Write the structure tokens for this entry.
Amino acid sequence: QLEVPMHIHLHETLDEINLSIESHGVRPIERMHQLGLLSPGLIAVHMVHLTDNEIRLIKQHGCHTVHCPSSNLKLASGFAPVTSLLDNNINVGLGTDSAASNNRLDMFEEMRLAALLAKASTNQADALPAHQALEMATINNARALGIDEITGTLASGKAADITAIDFSDLHLSPCYDPVSHLVYAAGREQVSHVWVNGKMLLEDKKLTTLDSTQLHNRAAYWEECIKSTA
């Protein structure tokens, strides 16, 4: 009624689906369909176990999906049918899930895994090329959040949200295709500068608005707190 966007983990595991069938007699997506919750305002995360009919429903209602390859692998959730979603012109973004199921929270790793898993699961080396993986991490995510007119691409009139990558490291040489390098070779350790809406937050790999020592001490404090209560 309020047209508020909704973010939900959906069809992540077989247990989730079986529990829905036991409790409600239908799979989760069908139940959401019955409740009128499938819409362009829905961001469905994981979407690992899908039937052809469920993919058609998601497409029909303009829902967005988010692929979290590292989390799916660590939890043994399965392999999301990313290529099928993309072939049906369904918007697919990339996510990390939480630290509980993804220790690195590294979008570079998610791009690389997404591209490699798509190739392995379809037996097609040309599935999910590098440029498409980069789009999933940038403009597709912005589109899912409904802010693609503001950010997601480097374009005149959009916010200056920029991540600069240093390609001078020896192990990144030579570079014949920068996009391929971003997905298959580079990592977060090569991020040299970050701007958000034109404000520099990282300069020459150093935080400009946060104290790294203070952050480290805070993390150590909570580590001890959690250990003492475990």
